[in-house]
Amino acid sequence: MNINDLRANAYKKNAENNASQKSLNQNNFNQGGFVQANIVSMTNASKADKITESAENNPDYNNYDNILFKVPETTPSADGKESVYRRIAKFLILIGDDQASKILPHLPENQIEKIIPEIASIRTINNDEAAEILNEFKSLLNKNHQVGGVDTAKEMLERAYGTKKADEMLKKALPLEGRKPFSYLNEADNDKIYNLIKDENSGMKALVLSHIEPKKAAEIINKMSEDEKKEVVLRLAKMEKMSPDLIVQLDKVLYEKSLKYVTEETININGMNALTQILRKMDSGAGNAILNNISNDDPELTENLKTGLFTIDDVIDVEDRIIQEKLRDMADADICLLLAGKNEEFRCKILDNISAGRRKDVFAQEVILKPMRKSDVDATTTQFLNAIRDKIY
User: Fold this and answer.
1) From CA 9, how far away is CA 179, in angstroms rounded?
2) What's the pTM value of the predicted model, to 2 decimals?
3) Dmax over Cα atoms in the chain, in whole Å?
4) Which residues contact 68 (CB under 8 A, 6 or more apart)?
5) How far apart are CA 147 and CA 338, in angstroms?
6) Which residue of 90, 191, 250, 305 lies most exposed, with the fewest beta carbons within 10 A?
7) Tens digits of residue pLDDT in 3-14
8) Three-state SS for 176?
9) Partners of 268 in beta bridges
C-alpha cells in the first residue's frame, strides 16, 4: 500500500460519509465503529501532492514497521505519555479496516501483540488528534521530525486547518496578554479540567482552582477523593502571595499540557469492533497467526475476538464435513432449537447436512416443540457457534 492508496481511501470514505452523514459537517467521521479523517479538510490538494511525491521517493516507503514506530509518543501512559503502540493503533483505525488489514501483517509479531489490545480498547479519537496523527505519519515519510511545545502545536494546527482556524483554537487555550492566568480553563469541560490537574500536587491544584470561576472550582473539588479534597482546601485556605513570574511559568506548563485536551468534539469508537473488522479483512492464515500470538498474553481478548470473527452468517461458508460432525452430536430437539428463527439460507445449510430420514424427524419435532423459548434458542445457537468456531480457529 502506498500513500496514494491512503489518500484515495480517505477521499472515497469521506465522499460516502458526506452523502449519508451531512449533519456531521466538518467532522467527517463515519459511524459503525470507525473514524475516517477527511484529508481534504486537513491539507489542500497541492500539499497532498507534495506529500505523495515525497513519500514515493522515500526509502521507508513500504517499510511500515520502520515508518510507524518512529511516531513520537504524545498522550497518557504510566509516565504521562501515550505509548507508540496506542498511537499506531489509532492510525490504523483512522485509515480504515481495508488499509489496516494490509499493513498489520507486515509488522513484527512482538509489535502486533502490543498493538492489538490497544485497538480493542480505543473508544474515542477527537478531531484535532486525528489530524495530528495523520500529519505525524506524513512527516515521518518526509523524515521531518518535529519538536514539542507551543510552536509545534501551532504549526501542526496550521498545517491541518489553516492559519485562521489554528489561531481560533489556540486562542481558546492560550491566555491572551493581560488576561487572568488559567482563564482559558473557564471554557473547558469540568471533567477535562479535573483530568488535567488530577496528577498535579495539591499546591498546583489549589493555584488553578483559585484562578477559575468559583462555581466551576467547586464542581471540580467535588470530583476529588476525601483526602484530596482536604489537602486542596487547606492549600487554598493558606494561599496568600506568589511570584507573578512563577504563576506565568506554571500557567504556561499547564497550558502546554492542556493542548491535548483542547478538542471540543469527540466521536465514540468501538475498538473491539474495529479490530474484528480488520482481522476479518485479512486472509485466514494471517488472522489466525495474530490470534495465536496474543492468546497467551490475553486469553480473554482472544476469545472475544474469535466470537466476533465468527457469527451465524459465517456458518454458510463452513465446510460441510465440520457441520456434519457437530450435528451428529446434537439431539433432534437441539437441531430444532438451532433452526428456530433463522433465515432460509442457514436452515438449508443445516438441513442439507443431515440425512433425509433425520430431516423428517426434525420437522416433526419442530411442530411438537413450538413455541420455543428464546433463551433456549439463544443458548443452543451460541453453543453451536462456539463448537464450530473452535474447529476453525
Assistant:
1) 45
2) 0.37
3) 93
4) 88, 91, 103, 107, 137, 140
5) 60
6) 191
7) 445 444 444 444
8) coil
9) 124
What span, in angstroms and rounded, lies between the C-alpha atoms of 245 and 254?
Answer: 14
Q: Find out whether 191 and 165 touch, Cβ atoms under 8 Å.
A: no
Q: Is 76 left (phi over 0), alpha (psi -120 to 50) or beta?
A: beta
- pLDDT tens-digit series, residues 166-200: 666 666 555 444 457 787 787 777 888 888 888 88
| CA distance linking residue 110 with residue 138, whole number of Å | 25
Instruction: Show the cell assigned to 45.
Output: 490538494
Q: Indicate left, alpha or beta for 178 from its phi (over 0: left) and psi (-120 to 50: alpha).
A: left
What is the C-alpha to C-alpha distance for residues 391 and 393, in angstroms, rounded to an integer?
6
Which amino acid would we find at residue 87?
R
- Interaxial angle between packed helices 163-173 and 150-161, expressed in degrees from 0 to 180 and rounded to the nearest 10: 140
- Which three-class secondary structure state does DSSP give residue 124? strand
Average pLDDT in the 43-68 region? 41
DSSP summary character for residue 186 = G
Q: Which amino acid is at 121?
A: S
Q: Give, to the nearest 10 degrees, the angle between helix 344-351 and helix 320-328.
A: 70
Separation of alpha carbons 259 and 154, rounded Å:
10
- Ranges of beta strands (E only) in 63-190 are none
